[in-house]
Write a structure and sequence with these properties.
The chain is mostly helical. It is built from five helices and no strands. α1 runs antiparallel to α2, α1 runs antiparallel to α5 and α2 runs antiparallel to α3.
């Protein structure tokens, strides 16, 4: 889960936003199935929603850019990075308890 939380913002910032669906999905499923800490589950859900909104928008728009990386708003990139950082902190705190 931790590697996925690190990989998602790296892929989005590195212009591989569509491939970032894999680590986002792994982080969400891992958090929902394995994490006991509520903060980890909530931040994983926040990351998934922050990623899903621009993905769905890109998929349903008929005049969208040829790739998600070119179509995603910089505000959503910042939100994905912030949600990933929150997930990493939540995982780290849950590991200490």
């Amino acid at each position: 889960m931790t590697v996925s939380a690190w990989a998602a913002p790296v892929l989005v910032v590195g212009q591989f936003a569509l491939i970032a669906a894999v680590p986002v999905t792994i982080a969400l499923v891992g958090a929902l199935l394995r994490a006991r800490d509520r903060a980890v589950r909530l931040t994983a859900g926040l990351l998934a929603v922050a990623y899903a909104i621009p993905l769905v928008t890109w998929l349903i728009r008929p005049d969208g850019a040829p790739s998600l990386s070119k179509d995603i708003h910089p505000g959503f990139v910042g939100l994905i990075v912030a949600a990933s950082a929150a997930l990493i902190v939540a995982i780290h705190r849950a590991g200490r308890n």
